[in-house]
Design a protein that fits this description.
Elements lengths: L23 E4 L3 H6 L1 H13 L3 E3 L9 H6 L2 H15 L4 E4 L2 H14 L4 H11 L2 E3 H7 L12 E5 L3 H7 L3 H7 L5 E3 L15 H4 L1 H18 L3 E4 L2 H13 L6 E4 H6 L3
Parallel strand pairs: 1-2, 1-3, 3-4, 5-6, 5-7, 7-8
Helix pairs in contact: 4-6, 5-6, 5-8, 7-9, 11-12
């Protein structure tokens, strides 16, 4: 997932570099994707390249600082935020396949640096150029056709941070609507939390489990072949609960995997 040079385009399939047609974007992979489902990151690269962009993956990137911020470890969150800003601020756009991490940069870095005007200005500048993946594809890239194909029914889960902090709701559905083989079946309470909530699922396991159970019941009621969403944390929560319920057939996919194909 990592490039060897901060300024070099990522090689995804062969030795041919991505062509710079519309500009360069930096992909913030997210630590969770990098460690657990790197295929989501490669799918995001395919989508961005299909929209005509050269994609750069800064090699030393790690975490946006959200877990530390939410847990009250302000110094650790600040250090990670400064590191991220330094690594990404040179790029025209920063794209993130996670509403949660994009929301941290866009909405919460202003609080991280509220007492430091110099860093606050740098954080605000980066926030204005940071986009959740589907929002970028719809509202910046204006992508009319996606490279992937999918045959079957899908139900979509609206992840909390993307929906409530960034307004990600219609964008993934608009992209799915360009895929002839997709039948969208909306689940009841599609905007309700899946129970993950980052450290919430660790601190309040019983409540988290009940929320995940309710979400999986809503998914099952649609009869869809797959549940699709935009945050890996939600994917892990939902997939784990589905399998514990005995459901071994419903696919749990990130929106990038569906749109790019090969997920």
């Amino acid at each position: 997932m990592r490039s060897t040079d901060n300024a070099a385009p990522v090689d995804t399939t062969d030795d041919t570099p991505a062509l710079s047609v519309r500009g360069r974007v930096a992909l913030m992979v997210t630590c969770l994707v990098d460690l657990m489902r790197p295929g989501i990151g490669f799918a995001a690269i395919r989508l961005l390249e299909s929209a005509g962009y050269e994609v750069v993956v800064p090699a030393a990137q790690t975490c946006c600082g959200q877990p530390g911020w939410n847990s009250g470890d302000r110094p650790a969150a600040r250090a990670l935020a400064q590191k991220l800003i330094t690594e990404f601020e040179a790029y025209e756009h920063v794209v993130v396949p996670s509403g949660s991490c994009a929301g941290m940069i866009r909405m919460h870095y202003r609080d991280v640096f509220a007492d430091d005007s110099a860093w606050l200005a740098r954080a605000a500048a980066l926030a204005g150029r940071t986009h959740e993946l589907t929002d970028f594809l719809v509202n910046v890239a204006r992508l009319a056709r996606v490279p992937g194909s999918f045959q079957g029914s899908i139900t979509y889960h609206d992840s909390c941070a993307g929906l409530r902090e960034l307004g990600v709701k219609t964008q993934p559905r608009a992209l799915l609507a360009t895929m002839p083989g997709v039948e969208l079946k909306e689940m009841p309470d599609c905007e309700e939390c899946c129970g993950f909530g980052g450290t919430f699922s660790v601190k309040f396991g019983e409540i988290s489990g009940a929320l995940a159970e309710a979400k999986c019941a809503s998914i099952a009621s649609t009869g869809a072949n797959a549940v699709v969403l935009g945050d890996l944390g939600c994917m892990l929560s939902i997939e784990g609960r589905l399998r514990r319920r005995g459901d071994e057939t419903t696919q749990v996919l990130h929106i990038a995997q569906v749109l790019a194909g090969g997920g």
